[in-house]
Design a protein that fits this description.
The protein is an alpha+beta fold. It is 30% helix and 28% strand. It has nine helices and 21 strands. A nine-stranded antiparallel β-sheet has the order 4-5-6-11-12-15-18-19-20. The structure holds adenosine-5'-diphosphate (ADP) and magnesium ion (MG).
Length: 376
């Protein structure tokens, strides 16, 4: 390990802001910030919910990020649905996806799937892992949920979110060793009823690249069971769900953050009905050490933060897991291969390049309006 003192204390990143046009026609943007995943529960919950103009709006913390909800529903029901959404997110993190919390499925898998006989999987988890393994294969390994040893070694999330002044970078040897414990192709999944997973010793799952996307789909299912909610926008850090209709019938407006100035946007997506938008960027969680930016999206080919000309990628899809997994994969693959991959899944992509260029898939152009004042 090499110890560096950071030149700058990284501010927790603003990933993607969403802007809602209220009934009055004025654009309303909401403040965003990131928080650290360990600190869920009452201590970190800062519910600022209030009801106005037919909508419940709240800001909260779950799954290591800031959750912003706008729910169009009658006053007496809106806050209860909002609380249900928060409960769903806390359960998803604590009981299924967290690799830190010892009550979760992923924690249990990491502790036992290397044993002879592997470990039994609930149906939902088997399906999720199967989809992830498939995306791993089709992205030529760029997206890989078995990077736990490597993400643990880099520990960038923790550096980036605690304002740590002193960071330790792993040595080349350490990276090589951690990388040797990764690789989706080494996973063995027996799917169907009685599904089982087998992992080599030392391998660890990290579902950080899809957790919020999975959450979007679960939230959508919850909202579908609550007919009193006519429309909603729920933002989980860099992943956003739009649902239903706005009372005035206008489209949802989702702003895509400008990586060069995260308080600004590069443009707006105008979306009707239900969509998932996920963004991966090198400005989300990072540290700067000795003049080099280390961010949280790792290239499985090298073991180091992906070094492409991409600053941010947004993916638009009907499916949450796809939007989230593909945004991570496309960040690593770059625009050429990334566009091709997104297209194969029927998803639309928008790349913000290092030189400021915006590269959009044909379909994305239908929804995107560039911000006239966008500058690199
Ligand atoms: P965020 O979670 O900040 O929205 P991403 O969806 O791009 O951003 O996911 C990044 C997270 O996924 C990292 O913090 C790490 O846990 C994990 N990760 C990093 N590199 C990869 C990769 N190549 N494939 C899959 N997961 C990754
Ligand atoms: Mg992702």
């Amino acid at each position: 390990m090499k110890i560096f003192f950071q030149r700058t204390v990284p501010m927790a990143a603003l990933i993607m802001a969403f802007i809602l046009c209220g009934g009055c026609g004025a654009a309303e943007s909401m403040p965003r910030e990131e928080a650290y995943g360990d600190q869920s529960g009452e201590e970190m919950r800062r519910n600022t919910g209030q009801y106005a103009e037919g909508a419940w709006r709240s800001t909260d913390v779950a799954m290591g990020t800031v959750i912003q909800q706008t729910l169009y529903a009658p006053r007496e029901e809106a806050s209860a649905v909002s609380a249900e959404c928060m409960e769903l997110l806390e359960k998803l993190e604590g009981e299924e996806l967290s690799w830190r919390l010892d009550g979760s499925e992923v924690y249990r898998i990491n502790a036992s799937a290397h044993e002879e006989g592997g470990c039994a999987l609930p149906e939902d988890m088997a399906l999720l892992l199967e989809q992830c393994m498939e995306i791993s294969e089709s992205s030529e390994g760029a997206f890989d949920i078995t990077l736990g040893s490597l993400t643990g070694l880099w520990n960038i999330d923790r550096w980036a979110s605690e304002g740590v002044q002193e960071v330790s970078l792993p040595s080349g040897e350490e990276v090589k060793e951690a990388l040797s414990l990764c690789g989706s192709e080494k996973l063995k999944l027996e799917s169907g009823p009685g599904a089982r997973l087998f992992m080599p010793e030392g391998m660890r799952l990290d579902l950080g690249a899809v957790g919020k996307g999975v959450a979007l789909s679960r939230l959508r299912t919850l909202l579908e069971e609550r007919p009193e909610v006519s429309g909603a926008v729920i933002s989980l850090g860099g992943s956003i769900l739009t649902y239903g209709v706005k009372p005035d019938g206008s489209p949802w407006r989702v702003a895509i953050t400008n990586p060069f100035d995260t308080a600004e946007n590069v443009g707006i997506l105008s979306l009707e009905g239900q969509w998932c938008v996920s963004t991966s960027g090198d400005y989300e969680r990072y540290v700067e050490a000795d003049g080099v930016r280390y961010h949280h999206i790792l290239d499985p080919a090298t073991g180091y933060p992906a070094d492409t000309r991409v600053r941010g990628v947004s993916i638009l899809s009907k499916d949450g897991l796809l939007s989230d997994a593909l945004s991570t994969a496309c960040f690593i693959l770059g625009p050429e291969k990334g566009m091709e991959l997104a297209g194969r899944y029927g998803a639309e992509a928008l790349f913000v390049m290092e030189d400021g260029e915006l590269i959009l898939s044909e379909g994305m152009k239908r929804y995107f309006t560039k911000n006239d004042s966008y500058r690199k």
